[in-house]
Amino acid sequence: YTEVGERMQKLKGSNQSNNAFASNFVPIWIDLFNSDTCIVEKVKKSFQSSGLLGAAGIATSWTRSGEQWDFPNGWAPLQHMIVEGLAKSGSQEAKSIAQDITMRWINSNYVAYKETGAMHEKYDVEKCGDIGGGGEYIPHTGFGWSNGVVLAFLEEFGWPEDLKISCN
């Protein structure tokens, strides 16, 4: 329902998108949602069935528009909020999913860094080590949020000493 002036108007389902977007899962980042195990389970199952998790991280959407906010781009802040929400949800399975996303993201960022000498503002989630593209400008390098998210992931999950960071 939405308020229009002094009356309430029911929104039609046809006005809503059924497409999956990474931003749909950001509310799990808010502690309020994590206190309800039923909601956590629904969000976890919905995320797993969304198809947004690619080889190198979470796609922003499934829309192939060529724009920077669409497939196959993944953005560091969305990775971080979803991973952090899953990790602190209290569900061991959700924490395992968060760790898997973390490993994919760190691998891709590191391989791209080794190939280009820079961190990037977005990454292609279809292929580990590929940087993102599209949009109205040439993608930026040396991006602070990419640096910060990788550091936050390493602080939260660490990295197994016996595991090589690579895309293989």
TrEMBL record:
* InterPro entries cross-referenced by the UniProt entry: 6-hairpin_glycosidase_sf (IPR008928), 6hp_glycosidase-like_sf (IPR012341), Glyco_hydro_37 (IPR001661), Glyco_hydro_37_CS (IPR018232)
One Pfam family assigned to this protein is Trehalase
Q: What is its EC number?
A: 3.2.1.28
The UniProt keyword set, sorted, is:
Glycosidase, Hydrolase
Q: Give one GO molecular function term.
A: alpha,alpha-trehalase activity
Catalytic activity annotated for this protein? alpha,alpha-trehalose + H2O = alpha-D-glucose + beta-D-glucose
Q: Does the keyword Oxidoreductase apply?
A: no
Gene Ontology biological process terms from the UniProt entry: trehalose catabolic process
Family assignment from sequence similarity: Belongs to the glycosyl hydrolase 37 family.
- The protein's name: Trehalase
The organism of origin for this protein:
Citrus clementina (Clementine)
